[in-house]
Amino acid sequence: MDCRRKRRLTFFTIGLIFLLSGIEYAVILPTIWRYLQTLNAAPYFLGLSLSAFSFSGLLAGPLFGFWSDRTLSTKKIIMFANVFEIVGNFMYFMGYSKWLLLCSRLVAGIGTGAGSSIFGFLTRNTAPEERSTVFAAVMASRQAGLLIGPAFNIFLRLCNFQIGPFTVNKYTSPGLFMCLLWILLQFVILFLFWDFTPQDETRQRNRVEEVEQEEEEGKPLVGPSELTGSYGTVTSIQSRTSSVANGDVTHVSPPPSPPPEEVNSSPFKNFSASGEFLREEVVVVLAAQFITLFNQTALETMVTPLTQMLFNFGELENSIMYCVCGVEVIAGFLFVRWLSKRVAERVVLAVGLILYNISCVWCLIFLANPQGGFAWQLAEFIIGVFLQVLGLPFVAVAQVSLFSKITSEKTQGFTQGIRRSVGGLATILGPLWAGGLTSDLYIMLGLMMGLLVLLTIMMVVSYERLVEPVTVDNPTGTESED
Prior knowledge:
mainly alpha; two-stranded antiparallel sheet; 17 helices; disordered C terminus
């Protein structure tokens, strides 16, 4: 199988991985609170269970990323991480106690750490100019999972039977369903995922070119008396010299292989954490990751109580709202994929920040102390949510793609793990902040607005540095960054 087909199938498999992660979130989140109530859990257990999933992923991400950078083997890391997803979801299905349920989310969260290895793999195997479009497609896959996930709950809530000692009902069935999906995904990864590298494609391209050149040379150009070596090897100096003099180069040697010590050297040999992460542009991108995810999860936590208080929304109305938001997000990712081919990542990031600022100002003015009748309040709420969701694809794609370009390519797994850990910390703190302030939206939204203003100032000051560093090949073959 040629490298191009392997590449397509591998990227397709990566899309499936993110699709399943979105489905898992959408299937389990709507029922976990009622599930905990059947196990006599206190209200704070909901926050603990959701935070446990993010916390274990926060710790696992850099470790899996470090592993992938050292071995350049992403396939076995993904399959190993998926074992935690399988075990964690089966524990969720068992559901003997609230503590087992908490541990199940902690175990399943470890599996999300493979995301850092995947982003490192994508960075190593995509050109800088196409990276934003690839990342946008991958993130859109997860949003598609969030969109279609609630549809599975339509038939999962009808489950009511026994499997041996286990009860399958509308609360336990999501765990069993996701366990089976992750098992099926293991077989897909086994047969459709390849650990290829750009060097593999280059070598195959060189082999194809050599064969084509040998066929073009043919018998008229090379006589039998001149073939003293293997097929396709021209050993006559006179014939080669004359062909070059006539402007016809009959054979191009492949590029020399890199020295063995360069191939086998550790990517962390000259790595400095302070030099990598304490640079101005890296700090800005990590701040964008934290602040936008903090605000996003805080608003997600606030939305359900707010709709219940203002509009008396139930599960059906909230499900419809999330589906509409999912459609908007997917459309946004597709637009960003198109836009990123035409403008730089920092422009896309700036557009997203502008939308986030407008959304937060709107929520502070109209939602913190809503006025007017039902229709007016509903219109205010829809506009605020629309602007917030609209800004998400711009910021998400831009900061991931830009981060991959301003950090070392050799250690992308580890650095992407750090980036995802920063995001994981935000997804833990965001709900905790919003959960206790749903009745005092001025304080909750005021902090979010302050963080956005800080991020905007940071980006304006560092705007000129938010570009891919220029690399120059020196005579010794090494690269230096300007």
